[in-house]
Design goal:
By secondary structure, the protein is mostly helical. The chain has one domain. It contains ten helices and no strands. It has helices spanning 3-10, 14-30, 35-49, 51-66, 68-77, 82-95, 105-126, 150-170, 176-193, 198-221. Helix 2 (14-30) crosses helix 7, helix 5 (68-77) runs antiparallel to helix 6 (82-95) and helix 8 (150-170) runs parallel beside helix 10. It is elongated and about 120 Å long. Mean pLDDT is 77; it is low at 3-9, 231-235 and 239-251.
Amino acid sequence: MSHLSLVIASNPLTPLEHVARHVLDWLHSTIGLPWAWSIVALTVIVRILLVPLTVRQIHSMQNLQRFAPQMKEIQKKYKADKQKQNQELMKFYRENNINPAASCLPMLAQLPVFLGLYYSLKHFAKHPPSGNLSFLHFIPSIASHTTTHWGGYVLLVVYVVSQLASSYYMSASADKMQRTLLMVMPVVFVFFIARFPAGLVLYWVTTNLWTVGQGLITRRLMPRPAAPEKRTSRTPPQDEGDGGGNGAKPEPSGRPPAQPTRNQPPRRVRRKKKAGRR
């Protein structure tokens, strides 16, 4: 067994680390970016490559939002039978070309990059490369824990704000409970992310800011589709006649329209008296 096979067997994520390291080295050595800005550039490259999946995600979220009333009706109708409810929902998805999993595709596609960058920064912490690892002169090293310096706390605050803004745009089609959960999660996760390398938090802040900008742009370029007409018992039926139910107006017959009759008392006629009678 070769040395590479032994390394992969010991850590299956090693190829992801090597790819992330090579891209960072290229951005730093060839392009001339500092290490921190190389992470920002890596994030932008990844998000540009994920644009097709992002477009599918946006369309999926719009479809979920458009057909939300019909799906709630199905859930309410089959509330007692979960199996039947799932079957009817899957049938409804197929008939209306809805793919709920499409909203998770960009997040899943970023997971290998996230893991590769994490292990690359761990390697940076053990074997620092040549060059300055600081970021904006208030984070000493992107490979150290975020809370080792006061600048890391500033980065965590920016992370929470950007994650809340990103969750606001990503949870547009979610119900009230899911939306509340998505808005609370960034505050809870900050205690775990504080132990991550600062460069990894920088990557996540950059992708959150990209998501916010993307949400602002797509709201202008891709307007929300109109919701289907919801008919109720009070909805007037369409005219049925010579037009085949298409609501065509009848042609005029040349006579003036009949005036509506009113409930009036009968008119009293006064008779004229004859001349010979007194």
